[in-house]
C-alpha cells in the first residue's frame, strides 16, 4: 500500500473495534371484543432489553455501556359502527423505546447518556367505504418524554446523530381518499398536516448553549401531500401519474430558514402491463419515469456548525435527487 503523502497512522491500525450483545425478550396479550355496534380492543406488551456494548471507537476509547430496560406498553381502543359503510374510532397507547448503540457512541460529549423515549399517543377518526368511495380522516396527538430527535449532524458513517429532549410533541390531521370514478379511472390522494415541536429546548454548539421556548423538530415537514391518478384504457394496461409535495424541513432544531431543505413537488409516471403467457401465472411489465418535469430538489441533508465569538457559523450539506430517470421492470409469477 502506497501513498504520495503518508499520514501519521500505521497499517492495520483499527479505526474502531467494538462488540455488542443485545438480548430482547417480549410478549403480548391482545383482546378483541364485539358488542352490538361496538368493537373494543386492548393489548399490552412487555419487553426486557439487556444491551451490552464495549470497545474502542474513533471518538470514544474504552467505552463500556450496559443499559437494561423493562418496558410495559399498553393500548386500548374502540370503534363504533355507524352503519354498514362508516364508523368512528378512538384509541390511546403508551409506548417506550430504548436508545441504540449509535446514540451512546455518537452523542455530544457535553450531554448525559441517552435514555429511553416515552410516548403517549391519542388518535380518533372517521372512515367511510363503499364500492366506489373510501374516505378516512384521522387526528392524532403524540406527546413525548425524552424523545430522541436528530440534532442535524451526522456521524462519519452517515448516520444521524440524536439526543434526548425533555418535552416534545407531534399533533396533526391525516386524510386519505380513494374514488373509483368509473371502470377505467381511479383517483387516490393523501394529505397530512402537522405541528412537530420541542418545548423549552437547549441547543448545544461547542461550549455555547442556545435556549428556545418552542421550536420545530428537525427533518419533520408540516405538510405532505400525495396524489395518484390511474387510467386503464384496457384491462391489462394501466397508466398512473403519481405526485408528491413535501413542505420545508429544517436541518437542525433551530427553525432557521437558512438551515433548511426547501419544499419540493415531484411527479412520476408509471405504466404497467399484465398478461399471461408461456404457462406462467402472470407476467407484469412496468415502465416508471421518475421526476418527469426534471425538478431540481433535495430530499434530505444535514448541517454542521460552530461558534466564533457571538457569531454562528455553519455549513449545509444536501443530498440532491436525480433528474428525470426511468426504471424498467419485469415480474413473473409461477
How would you characterize this protein structure?
- With 334 residues, the protein is an all-beta fold.
- It has a domain at 17-237: Maltoporin, Chain A, CATH 2.40.170.20.
- It has one helix at 101-105, and strands at 17-35, 38-56, 63-65, 68-81, 86-97, 117-129, 133-154, 160-180, 185-205, 208-216, 223-234, 237-246, 249-250, 260-261, 264-275, 282-290, 298-308, 311-320, 325-333.
- The strands form 3 sheets. It has a 15-stranded antiparallel sheet that branches.
- The protein starts with 16 loop residues before the first strand and ends with a strand.
- The model has no long low-confidence stretch (mean pLDDT 94).
Tags for this model:
mainly beta, two-stranded antiparallel ribbon, single chain, 334 residues, 15-stranded antiparallel beta sheet, Maltoporin, Chain A
Can you tell me the overall shape?
A: globular
Task: Please tally the β strands and state the result.
Answer: 19
Distance between the termini: 50 Å
Question: DSSP helix count?
Answer: 1
CATH uppermost class of the domain at 17-237 = Mainly Beta
Helicity level? under 10%
Write the topology of this structure.
Layout: E1 17-35, E2 38-56, E3 63-65, E4 68-81, E5 86-97, H1 101-105, E6 117-129, E7 133-154, E8 160-180, E9 185-205, E10 208-216, E11 223-234, E12 237-246, E13 249-250, E14 260-261, E15 264-275, E16 282-290, E17 298-308, E18 311-320, E19 325-333
Antiparallel strand pairs: 1-2, 2-3, 2-4, 4-5, 5-6, 6-7, 7-8, 8-9, 9-10, 9-11, 11-12, 12-15, 13-14, 15-16, 16-19, 17-18
Amino acid at each position: 500500500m502506497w501513498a504520495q503523502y503518508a499520514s501519521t497512522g500505521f497499517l492495520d491500525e483499527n479505526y474502531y473495534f467494538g462488540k455488542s450483545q443485545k438480548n430482547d425478550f417480549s410478549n403480548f396479550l391482545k383482546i378483541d371484543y364485539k358488542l352490538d355496534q361496538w368493537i373494543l380492543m386492548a393489548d399490552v406488551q412487555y419487553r426486557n432489553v439487556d444491551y451490552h456494548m464495549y470497545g474502542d471507537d474513533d471518538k470514544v476509547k474504552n467505552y463500556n455501556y450496559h443499559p437494561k430496560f423493562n418496558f410495559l406498553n399498553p393500548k386500548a381502543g374502540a370503534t363504533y359502527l355507524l352503519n354498514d359503510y362508516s364508523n368512528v374510532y378512538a384509541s390511546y397507547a403508551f409506548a417506550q423505546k430504548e436508545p441504540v448503540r449509535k446514540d451512546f457512541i455518537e452523542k455530544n460529549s457535553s450531554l448525559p447518556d441517552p435514555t429511553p423515549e416515552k410516548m403517549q399517543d391519542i388518535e380518533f377518526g372517521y372512515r367511510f367505504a363503499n364500492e366506489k368511495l373510501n374516505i378516512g380522516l384521522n387526528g392524532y396527538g403524540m406527546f413525548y418524554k425524552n424523545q430522541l430527535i436528530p440534532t442535524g449532524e451526522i456521524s462519519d458513517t452517515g448516520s444521524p446523530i440524536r439526543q434526548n429532549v425533555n418535552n416534545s410533541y407531534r399533533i396533526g390531521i391525516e386524510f386519505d381518499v380513494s374514488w373509483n370514478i368509473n371502470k377505467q379511472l381511479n383517483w387516490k390522494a393523501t394529505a397530512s398536516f402537522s405541528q412537530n415541536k420541542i418545548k423549552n429546548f437547549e441547543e448545544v454548539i461547542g461550549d455555547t448553549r442556545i435556549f428556545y421556548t418552542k421550536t420545530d423538530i428537525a427533518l419533520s415537514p408540516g405538510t405532505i401531500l400525495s396524489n395518484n391518478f390511474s387510467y386503464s384504457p384496457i384491462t391489462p394496461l394501466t397508466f398512473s401519474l403519481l405526485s408528491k409535495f413535501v413542505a420545508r424541513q429544517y436541518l437542525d432544531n433551530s427553525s432557521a430558514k437558512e438551515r433548511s431543505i426547501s419544499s419540493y413537488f415531484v411527479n412520476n409516471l408509471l405504466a404497467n402491463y399484465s398478461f399471461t403467457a408461456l404457462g406462467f401465472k402472470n407476467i407484469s411489465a412496468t415502465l416508471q419515469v421518475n421526476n418527469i418535469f426534471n425538478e431540481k430538489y433535495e430530499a434530505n441533508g444535514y448541517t454542521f456548525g460552530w461558534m466564533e465569538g457571538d457569531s454562528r457559523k455553519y455549513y449545509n450539506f444536501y443530498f440532491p435527487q436525480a433528474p428525470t430517470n426511468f426504471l424498467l421492470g419485469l415480474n413473473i409469477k409461477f
